[in-house]
Amino acid sequence: MLTPSRRSDAVLEPEQQYAVVLLNEDQLSQFIRRPGMRQVNRGYTVPDVHTRYLRLKRRTAATAVLLLVLATGGFLYFVAPRPAMASMFPWRETTEAPTLATGASFSVTVASLDSGDGAGTAAGRVRALGLPAFTRVSPGRRQLHQAMVGPYISLDEAERVQRRLARSGFTGARIFVDESLRNAPRNELHAVAAEGNPRVLLVGAPGRMSLVFEMPLEPRQVRSRRDTNMLDLDVGPMSNPVRLQQWTAPEGVHLVERVALEGVAAPGSGQFMRAHVALPEFARANVRTEGRRVYVDLTWPMAAPDLTASRAVAVQASSSTQTERTPAAPAARETDRFGEKYGEALRPVLDRLVDIKPFLMSAAQSGSPDVRGALDETLAELEASLNAMHAPATALAQHQLLLSAVRAGRRSTDSTFHGDRTAQAREAFVLYDAATATAIIPAAQ
Q1: If exposure means fewest CB atoms within 10 Å of the residue's CB, which of 29, 39, 66, 203 is most exposed?
Q2: 154 and 268 together in one domain
Q3: What does 332-363 look like in DSSP terms, one character per residue?
Q4: Starting at the edge strand that comes first in sequence, how are the strands of the sheet with 174-178 ordered?
Q5: How far is CA 344 from CA 33, 347, 399, 442, in A?
Q6: CA-based nearest residue to 204, from 220, 180, 227
Q7: Among 126, 291, 321, which Cα is nearest to 217's?
Q8: Contact, 210 vs 297, CB < 8 A?
Q9: DSSP letters along 164-202, please?
Q10: Considering the domain boundaries, does residue 345 fall inside one?
Q11: In this predicted model, what pLDDT tens digit does every residue of 5-50 receive, in sequence order?
């Protein structure tokens, strides 16, 4: 007998039972707490209207300023004359430039006398003829005071002056040749002559040197402007435009540093040559023309005093009566006391410079930054002391040389200086020797 099988009902255990809940989408969002949509490009919208206004105002102002600058620059470029534009953009010196060409000079010796007063008188008479006369003390055991004329770069010029002097009564005038700069050392850069540019030559002379611009034609206009360390010359008009060209001075030359030429155009006047001559602040410069040549005579600030004028003053004073001379005596004593005070203030500065000199060159060549820094601090104190002094008229030129020597020494020790420190130290020695060649202050009693 078959027995039907009994199928048992499936019964789940309590832990295996599940509850099914049916939810719509809103209920599901609330149930899982899904965050709202985030704004991705928040930076492109500014919810604050005032902030957006300020930002737009700043952008508009900057754009207006830029347009104003561009419009002003364009107006000046097309309207202003070229010399004015050249003055707005001064010449910038570059580190690489060939050495100036050098040569011999020819001067004329007018008189050689034992008296400096006599040499000054002779130079004054020659200067009255319109000739560039100067005085110097000749080297050698017997030092003579000479009156000279020049210098010139050609023998023809010197011979013409010699003949003119002979017609004026100076029959003993003789030509003197100076070749001190003919073989001056040059750098390795080769100077290429620009077509149409004037020839530039540097020559030495007794106690001075001359920078010469040889023009193609005799110039009708020569204008000069002197800044502290820059002499600008405008020479012309020129038949051809002048191309930009630059040179540096030979090693060991201290009265000129760099020379540059450029062409400028003046409305209604044609082309001009503009020469930029960089020179130290203590150098004296005098411009003269001789036919087609423009000379820039450079001298040290220790030119001989006008002995003729001082002699005339002395004669006038000796002819005065005793009552007229009496009021001048207190002034003379006051001048002497002023010189004594200056000497007392200057003497410790000179003593300190003597102590520093042996260390300056070695520090410039291979000194450590600490050594250079210590020397720079000392030189800065000496420079401040010299600036605070009031030198008498008789010592003003030497005082300026001392100040230039200290400044050159500071350049050689300056931590930010990237040039030739040795050359700067050597220049400081030359300036110091020139300043102390003669007594600056009275000897100590």
Answers
A1: 39
A2: no
A3: HHHHHHHHHHHHHHHHHHHHHHHHHHHHHHHH
A4: 133-137, 145-152, 105-113, 174-178
A5: 94, 6, 14, 9
A6: 180
A7: 291
A8: yes
A9: HHHHTT-TT-EEEEE-TTTT----SPPP-PPTTPPEEEE
A10: yes
A11: 444 455 555 555 555 666 666 666 665 655 554 444 444 444 555 5
342 lies in the same domain as 376: yes
Assign 3-class secondary structure to 204-256.
EECCEEEEEEECCCCCCEEEEEECCCEEEEEEEEECCCCCCEEEECCCCCCCC
Is residue 230 one of the residues assigned to a domain? yes
Q: Is there a single domain that holds both residue 374 and residue 412?
A: yes
Residue 238 CB neighbours (<10 A): 21
* Phi (first) and psi of residue 373, to 5 degrees: -65, -40
| Whole-angstrom distance, CA of residue 349 vs CA of residue 346 | 5
CA distances from 19 to 14, 15, 16, 22, 78 (A): 12, 11, 10, 10, 91
Select from 173, 168, 185, 175 the least CA-distant residue to 151: 175
Residue 444 one-letter amino acid: A
> In this predicted model, which residue has the larger pLDDT, 68 or 294?
294
Task: State which of 156, 178, 200 marks the end of a domain.
Answer: 178
Domain shared by 189 and 274, yes or no: yes
Report yes or no on 119 lying in a domain. yes
Q: What is the pLDDT of residues 44-60, one digit of tens each?
A: 444 555 566 677 777 77
* CATH number, domain with residue 248: 2.60.40.3470
Domain final residue pick, 178, 203, 222: 178
Q: How many domains does the chain have?
A: 4
Same domain, residue pair 202 and 312: yes
Q: What pTM value is reported for the model?
A: 0.56
Examine the domain organization and report whether 153 and 214 are in the same domain: no
Please give the residue range of the domain that contains residue 110. 105-178
Phi and psi torsions of 30, nearest 5°? -70, -35
Same domain for 292 and 234?
yes
Question: Distance (Å, rounded) from C-alpha 400 to C-alpha 434?
Answer: 11
Using an 8 Å Cβ cutoff, are 147 and 135 in contact? Answer: yes
Which CATH number does the domain housing residue 123 bear? Answer: 3.30.70.1070
Task: Look up residue 35 and give its amino acid.
Answer: P
Tell me the C-alpha distance between 380 and 407, whole Å. 8
Q: Is residue 67 part of a domain?
A: yes
Q: What angle do CA 109, 113, 116 make, to 5 degrees?
A: 105
User: Model confidence over 200-221: pLDDT tens digits?
Assistant: 999 999 889 999 999 999 999 9
Q: Residues 264, 238: contact at Cβ < 8 Å?
A: no
DSSP structure class, residue 286: E
Asked whether residue 213 falls in the same domain as residue 297, the answer is yes
